[in-house]
Amino acid sequence: MVIVIKPKTAQEDIEKIKRKMESLGCEVYETIGENRQILGLVGDTSKIDPDLIKANRYVEKVMHVQEPYKKVNRLFHPEDSVINIGNSSIGGEKLAIIAGPCSVENEEQIVTIAEQVKASGATFLRGGAFKPRTSPYSFQGLREEGLELLKIAREKTGLPIVTELMTTDYIDRFVEDVDVIQIGARNMQNFDLLKAVGKTDKPILLKRGMSATIEELLMAAEYIMSEGNENVILCERGVRTFEKYTRNTLDLSAIPVIKKLSHLPVIVDPSHAGGLWWLVEPLAKAAITVGADGLMIEVHNDPSNAKCDGQQSITPERFDSLTKTLKKIATIENKKL
Ligand code: PEP
Ligand code: MN
Fold it and tell me: Is the CB–ligand 1 distance for residue 238 below 6 Å?
């Protein structure tokens, strides 16, 4: 961190700032220019609030030399992280394919879809039990019953289950029942929820908020990791832009950017990004081509009667042909499916 001091500041006021920074555990190097004094801070500046420094009336500006996230940062962890979930994993050379309906509707629906996606190569089953809906009058999910049905589908197929947690109230239940806890886009900056899942050792699938920058997503992951849970998987699911044709705009460049900045695995959700079933295939192919570690895809056996997100769900048959195409792309990318 670099602190630029205002011109004509008295040396004793500069000394006060230096002493304050040293008391926070940093070494301070002073550079005297013709018109400017600059203080360079060396050491762990992660706990220093730059706004507090900016509030000092002798400070012109504060510049970051390093990113504000540590545990997430590739700098301190050059190898790609691989998150192990039972006999499966996310990250590394094998692509993770998470597939299933937007929401769990009944036993027959979830078990049938689970069997179908497994046969086509899915490695995880998704299904919302607690649904974050824009309207309070829309289907809110089967809640606890949904979790029970997911467990039945896991029992029958062996696929680990991924489902969204919306409140800390259910955290113990999720730790007990679920293989990967999803934190949805709407809760990406629910810091109490992030800290709570950070205290568990469950793999956490953290989805990018619909208006979140890449740095905000990485800081949200830092919240989880700073509590001790290093099993974080990031998910790009499109961000809100001026474009209205698609539900969101898939930020494909986020994948190589995140890969450069962080060691955490990153997957792509083309279903919530495009919001249209026929966009799922091209976006999924693009995601793997730019280096995603996997995909989360909404699959429904009767999309026109789905209780949630039928318009963006692909049928099991289309999912099957998509995985065949993805297998070929994976080979070119030195990955496996
Ligand atoms: C979901 O995956 O079920 C979901 C609601 O997605 P998002 O949080 O990305 O909108
Ligand atoms: Mn959905």
Answer: no
